[in-house]
Write a structure and sequence with these properties.
Length: 197
């Protein structure tokens, strides 16, 4: 169990991990906290956007749309590896997921199948949207995969979590497929390697 880090500590953790960070508007105070609490935080959730074009993707993730107001994540990881911070606090990214998965994340154990939607994930996870069409064909540039690992490692390093605290949306909520194009086990391996540094 951990309280979310402050916005300043968050951006510093990302920069200290060697990331290029782009601040989008008043990201520090752009959140959905009026809809419920954010925290305690237990992990990091990775998504893909099903969009093309960084400017459009960042705008969508910051503002959301009529059925799902923004922010839709805390940061957008672009194809070029830059991390665009669009919000901080509660964000509309995780939705309802499986309490057994959350328990496994907290215990840093192997994840069980996600077969329930009984728990509010927006409260418990840092969320990152990664610019990709999510069709299994749109490439994941090496610099982008590296940035996903660095973002995750930065947060895990701060909270003294292992790579098992990082999950994909598809591991949390039944019916979700993101991120598609790499396996979360492989990504957790990369994160674990970074955490040794």
């Amino acid at each position: 169990m951990a309280a979310p880090m402050s916005a300043d500590r968050f951006i510093n953790a990302l920069r200290n991990e060697g990331l290029t960070v782009v601040e989008v508007g008043a990201w520090r105070t752009h959140n959905r906290n009026h809809k419920g609490p954010w925290g305690p935080v237990h992990g990091v959730m990775i998504h893909h956007t099903v969009t093309r074009g960084t400017a459009y993707t960042v705008e969508l993730c910051r503002d959301g749309y009529s059925a799902l107001p923004g922010p839709l994540c805390h940061g957008v990881i672009a194809k070029d590896g830059r991390v665009h911070l669009v919000g901080y606090g509660r964000a509309n990214h995780a939705g309802a997921g499986d309490s057994d998965v959350l328990a496994a994340v907290i215990a840093e154990k192997r994840l069980p199948p996600d077969n329930e939607t009984d728990t509010d994930g927006n409260r418990y996870f840092y969320g990152f949207e990664c610019e990709n069409l999510g069709d299994g064909e749109d490439p994941w540039p090496a610099v982008q995969l590296d940035a996903i690992a660095r973002v995750s490692a930065a947060i895990c390093r701060f909270h003294r979590w292992t790579a098992r605290s990082v999950i994909g949306h598809r591991e949390w909520q039944p019916g979700k497929v993101d991120p598609r194009g790499f396996t979360m086990d492989a990504m957790r391996g990369r994160i674990a390697e970074r955490l040794k540094q």
